[in-house]
Amino acid sequence: MQDEENLVRRAKQKDQKAFTELYEAYFDKIYRYIAIKIGDKTEAEDMTQQVFLKALESISSFKWKGVPFSAWLYRIAHNQVVDYYRKQKKRPDTLSDEALVVSDSNPQQMAERNLDIERVMSATRQLTESQREVISLRFSGGLSTAEVSKIMGKSQGAIKALQHSAIVALRKALLVGTNE
After folding, report:
1. pTM (2 decimals)?
2. Residue 39 confidence (pLDDT) above 70
3. In principle, which of 18, 22, 133, 139 could form an S-S bond with 10, CB 3.0–4.6 Å?
């Protein structure tokens, strides 16, 4: 991928090829972030498309302020998720069946994998909203601590502390779940 700043500059000048490169570079990460937040693959695809549509419509307002372009995209994605839940007026208790289905020829492995996913999702519901956001951005989005701190508007130390407390809480919840 070409230099990100150069791509954004070109995209701001209505260069479709540059925006396409940005889209291809970030689509999967934004999609994973949204899919984990809402638990619905089909809806996540639609919402990811909306994120990039909004980015295309407002890219001219993007300014380099020491924040990477991806942080701007994640902020748009975060706002899409918030809007989604506002419309839903509730958070899902479990992942949809579609989100749990994994193509696998071994039914036992598939069942075990789905059970593991369900246990992790159940454990994450015990986290605070900030902890869930950090876990989602760090591990689903594959972002660095610095990038997450810029997206969430918190110091890197606060992000590290949130991540640590989230992992400890997840580990505890998962251990309790295996002892029952």
Report:
1. 0.63
2. yes
3. 18
